[in-house]
Design a protein that fits this description.
The complex is a heterodimer of chains A (231) and B (42). Chain A has an 8-stranded mixed β-sheet with strand order 1-2-3-8-7-4-5-6, sandwiched between helices. In chain A, 30% of the residues lie in helices and 16% in strands. Chain A has a single domain, classed as Arginase, Chain A. Chain A has 231 residues and is of the alpha/beta class. In chain B, strands 1-2 form a two-stranded antiparallel sheet. In chain B, strand 1 (31-34) and strand 2 form a beta hairpin. The radius of gyration of chain B is 18 Å and the shape is elongated. The chains are: A alpha/beta (231), B alpha+beta (42). At the A-B interface, strand 6 and helix 4 of A face helix 1 of B.
Chain lengths: 231, 42
């Protein structure tokens, strides 16, 4: 459904295609973000990697696509899919030690043509807004400056919020949304993905967190101020 | 084991990652043919 210069669709293919056609600057698919699925196996509640499929759709039009992952878990399926190419850069901020899926070491930086095109920022539990924003901005700024992506895919896993049943970071909705706000400032076509159905989709396992988070981030992208009272 | 949320760790990691990303500037050009037609270069 078109929303001004943005579009929301439950289909990653439709959303990515509309973005690729240049008809919309921003796309949302809150029911996506299944970043653990591999080419031949399901993993971590993810049965199909819509992030990878959406990026493949964007690559039909755009030369370089940047994938950013702020889910508390490492975006292993997406990193693996594009580990050898220089057309996709992946950047994941995640809890690392003794935590699923166990990948995402800082020394994993891509290989062959994809060397230096994988970025991993391993973190401990308890990461707060201040620290998250402190690391997110310089890393993303440097990537955009050097990689010059033509499109961005932002996986907004809400399990990095404080109080999540599976996660152990300490981000507020506003801190989490600051990532979307910063990405928007670059004015690059962006597709936002993330868990929209708690307990089923990737990223966001506490019922009250997920709708609050995605509603706020939708408002950030659309430039709309939200009222506290429900309409 | 080092606290991966300490400012020292965050600063060190930012520096390492930014240094790696800086190496992209000198990446070799590539040519890719999509659907047998368009050629992308950079």
């Amino acid at each position: 459904m078109p929303v001004g210069h943005a579009v929301h669709s439950p289909s990653y293919i439709v959303t990515a295609a509309l973005l690729a056609e240049g008809r919309h600057q921003y796309g949302f698919n809150w029911s996506g973000g299944l970043h653990h699925a591999k080419q031949s196996e399901a993993s971590g509640f993810c049965y199909v990697n819509d992030c990878v499929l959406a990026i493949l759709e964007l690559l039909k039009v755009y030369q370089r696509v940047l994938y950013i992952d702020i889910d508390i878990h490492h975006g292993d399926g997406v990193e693996e899919a594009f580990y050898l190419t220089d057309r996709v850069m992946t950047c994941s901020f995640h809890k690392f030690k003794d935590y699923f899926p166990g990948t995402g070491h800082i020394e994993d930086i891509g290989k062959d043509a994809g060397l230096y095109h994988a970025v991993n920022f391993p973190l401990d539990e308890g990461l707060d807004d201040e620290s998250f924003i402190y690391i997110f901005k310089p890393v993303i700024n440097k990537i955009i400056e050097n990689f010059r992506p033509e499109a961005i895919l932002l996986q907004c896993g809400a399990d990095s919020l404080a109080g999540d049943r599976l996660g152990c970071f300490n981000l507020s909705v506003k801190g989490h949304g600051e990532a979307a706000r910063y990405i928007k400032s670059f004015n690059i076509p962006t597709l936002l993905l993330g868990g929209g159905i708690p307990y089923i989709n990737a990223g966001g396992y506490t019922l009250r967190n997920v709708p609050r988070c995605w509603t706020y981030e939708t408002s950030v992208i659309l430039g709309e101020e939200l009222q506290n009272e429900m309409p | 084991m080092e606290n991966q949320n300490s400012k020292a760790y965050l600063d060190k990691t930012i520096e390492q990652i930014v240094d790696n990303i800086g190496r992209l500037v000198n990446r070799p050009g590539v040519q890719l043919r999509i659907n047998g037609g368009e050629v992308f270069t950079h």
